[in-house]
Design a protein that fits this description.
By secondary structure, this protein is mostly helical. The chain is built from 4 helices and 3 strands; from the N terminus they run H-H-E-H-H-E-E. Helix 1 runs parallel beside helix 3.
Length: 174
């Protein structure tokens, strides 16, 4: 069972970026800057925090998590494209242990569906109607762009300045 130890958020200053994130314990790594940042792991933190505060331990002050949750959302917002979708996330954009993990650039639709849920969770936790509205727009736009009439496509790549859907389709994208 996961529990906060009083410092639910920390800065990765000096690492790949200054993103509030979870402390990840990797054997033989003595400095945080050596920890690879997995983008989907930090967004899952937001979903876990919401579940923790609303279902598992309603007595914990949600303000303990404000810095990490809001910091993650604010970091991700810097990587939105004109459609409001995440594009070209730095570092390792882990989807799952399958070929879906090879299809993360430039726009990864499963990651954007997850982003919509993160915006919804953070918006509900901290009363941010702008994030709730954006969650609906991101989910709708990702559905519109990724569905080819039969299946959901995993990613779109930038070709001649325009995003073009690939033919990549995985279970994670469905």
């Amino acid at each position: 069972r996961w529990q906060s130890r009083g410092n639910p958020g920390l800065s990765l200053a000096g690492a790949q970026s200054a993103v509030p994130a979870l402390r990840l314990g990797f054997p033989r790594q003595s400095r945080l800057s050596e920890v690879p940042v997995r983008r989907n792991l930090i967004v899952i933190h937001v979903l876990e925090v919401k579940e923790y505060l609303t279902e598992r331990n309603k007595t914990v002050d949600k303000e303990l998590f404000r810095k990490s949750v809001c910091g993650i959302v604010e970091f991700l917002e810097k990587h939105e494209n004109a459609d409001g979708l995440l594009q070209n996330l730095p570092s390792w954009n882990f989807v799952e242990w399958s070929s879906a993990n090879d299809w993360v650039q430039d726009v990864n639709y499963p990651t954007n569906f997850l982003y919509a849920e993160v915006l919804r969770a953070a918006g509900e936790l901290y009363g941010r109607s702008d994030w709730l509205e954006k969650a609906e727009r991101v989910a709708m736009r990702a559905r519109e762009l990724s569905f080819d009439g039969e299946v959901f496509i995993d990613n779109a790549t930038l070709t001649d300045g325009k995003l073009v859907n690939t033919k990549n389709s995985s279970e994670a994208g469905q």
